Amino acid sequence: xxxxxxxxxxxxxxxxxxxxxxxxxxxxxxxxxxxxxxxxxxxxxxxxxxxxxxxxxxxxxxxxxxxxxxxxxxxxxxxxxxxxxxx
Length: 87
What we know:
- There is one protein chain.
- The chain is mostly helical and 87 residues long.
- The protein contains three helices and no strands.
- Helix 1 runs antiparallel to helix 2 and helix 2 runs antiparallel to helix 3.
- The longest helix has 30 residues.
- It starts with a helix and ends with a helix.
- The relative contact order is 0.10.
């Protein structure tokens, strides 16, 4: 059975690969739009799931709150940036 840590790492590796592929494109091409769309929706779903299943339980403990809150704040910053880029 896969652990949550393995699943998170797999997702993060996938996101890095998509960003690498995106960086190898330019202009307004079908390929670039397709890669962006895949990255945009995958990262959004990943962040929501990560916050609910990973950071949610952490934030309920006093020792986990600082890290969980910091990570959720980073997700929020990334979400705002991605929304801006998507426009």
